[in-house]
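dumping this here so i dont lose it
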């Protein structure tokens, strides 16, 4: 069961969230990486924003148990070597055990212009097993988003719900599959769309 969950996570986050490293890989420019790991989401948000101020952007994330720090959320960020230029971004991390709370917090962040860039399951020492969502806002762009969170224990139900919100113009962002405090063993999907009329 654990191997299946890890495999799902790895397949989700194998593709870079922001195409910095992919773009650099096609040129002669070197790339610099920064790895952040902590067991507190508030600390991770602060460290990600510090790195963003130095020109780093999110590449991927995953929660799990590490040899050095126990249960941690791990984030990889990157930038073109020797530069801290480029659009400045801000990051916000949301972590909760309740579907209704996550929906409310994502809606508020979307109204402030934050774009979904990643999610994972994280076994917090303080909040138990939580879904963690990372959002990014480009300071030079003013875009508003509406988010929809779907959570169910049945894959057939998830497909039906995805198609239902798809008819309303929601675009799939990401998925996690694991045991959460939301409702036991669940599939959790997040989707977004521009507000109606935009």
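and the seq i came up w/
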């Amino acid at each position: 069961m654990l191997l299946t969950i890890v495999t799902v996570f790895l397949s989700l986050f194998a593709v870079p969230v922001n195409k910095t490293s992919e773009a650099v890989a096609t040129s002669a420019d070197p790339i610099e990486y920064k790895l952040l790991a902590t067991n507190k989401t508030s600390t991770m948000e602060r460290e990600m924003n510090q790195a963003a101020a130095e020109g780093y952007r999110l590449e991927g994330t995953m929660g799990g148990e590490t040899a050095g720090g126990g249960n941690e959320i791990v984030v990889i960020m990157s930038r073109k070597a020797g530069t801290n230029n480029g659009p400045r971004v801000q990051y916000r991390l949301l972590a909760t055990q309740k579907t209704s709370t996550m929906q409310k917090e994502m809606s508020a962040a979307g109204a402030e212009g934050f774009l979904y860039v990643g999610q994972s399951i994280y076994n917090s020492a303080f909040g138990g097993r939580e879904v963690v969502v990372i959002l990014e806002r480009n300071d030079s762009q003013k875009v508003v988003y509406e988010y929809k969170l779907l959570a169910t224990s049945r894959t057939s139900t998830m497909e039906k719900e995805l198609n239902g919100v798809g008819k309303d113009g929601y675009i799939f962002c990401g998925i996690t599959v694991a045991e959460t405090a939301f409702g036991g063993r669940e599939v959790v999907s997040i989707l977004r769309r521009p507000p109606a009329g935009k």
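Confidence is low (pLDDT under 50) at residues 1-16.
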